[in-house]
Amino acid sequence: MAREMLGIDIGGSGIKGAPVDLSDGAFARERFRIETPHPARPKPVAKVIAQIVDHFGWDGPVGVTYPGVVIDGVAMSAANVSKRWLGVDAAKLFADATGREITLLNDADAAGVAEMRLGAGRDRRGTVVVLTLGTGIGSALFTDGVLVPNTEFGHLQIDGRDAELRASAKARTEEGLGWHRWARRLGEYMAHLEALISPSLIIVGGGVSRKSAHFLPLIEGVRAEIVPARLVNNAGIVGAAMAAAAAHPAETAEPAPRRVRASGATGGAQAERGTAEAAR
Fold first, then answer.
1. What is the extent of the structural domain holding 64?
2. Is residue 148 part of a domain?
3. Side-chain-facing half-sphere of 110: CA atoms under 13 Å
4. Same domain, residue pair 80 and 131
5. On the chain, which terminus has fewer CB atoms closer than 10 Å, C or N?
6. Considering the domain boundaries, does residue 34 fall inside one?
7. What pTM value is reported for the model?
């Protein structure tokens, strides 16, 4: 029987979720997506999270990603969302909105957890970095399979600007960059990152990774092996579900959501344990 958990991923353009089969990362039901409110302020986003939970009739714990630094359930950065998120206890906000226990983690960390467990990073040791190319550049750093959370390498400065302003998928689209020119920018960014952390493997994720054949072979000047993510843009949902399952092992649905009501936010220490367990 499948073991399932609901994962929800907050993105710049859409908030999406699905119950995940934890054995292989497959969606147990069709993914449900709602446009991200603009501006993406806390209460409107919490309302969308509640709509997704209600859509699936989910009564157990929920894993949710946030596009920024998360410490003890609190949003500590807000680069690509409203600045009103700064200092907000987002885990509690979502728990109050849904009536469910929430495990909250950085969106790229969630994607990284999924890729290391089920995707391109499976069984890889040493230093591995997962980069998610989208509205910005998210990052997840692993050493011998253990997550170092909240790295935010997309904000490394190159030529006096955040790297993600030049090398994200959004930058490619907005500036009309061809694959060769964008690959040059990605190469500069990855070489800078490589000089700092010396990864043996770089996994490139985000929706644009579906087109990796167009740009990964064009990246030069990087020693590390560069591979596309296997879970593509679903990794955030899968990783969020894994983190929630690790934080609440006794409440993982088998095979469908159990009719158990729960309320309150997952404690910060418990959420961090869940993320660490999911990455193993």
1. 4-109+234-247
2. yes
3. 35
4. no
5. N
6. yes
7. 0.88
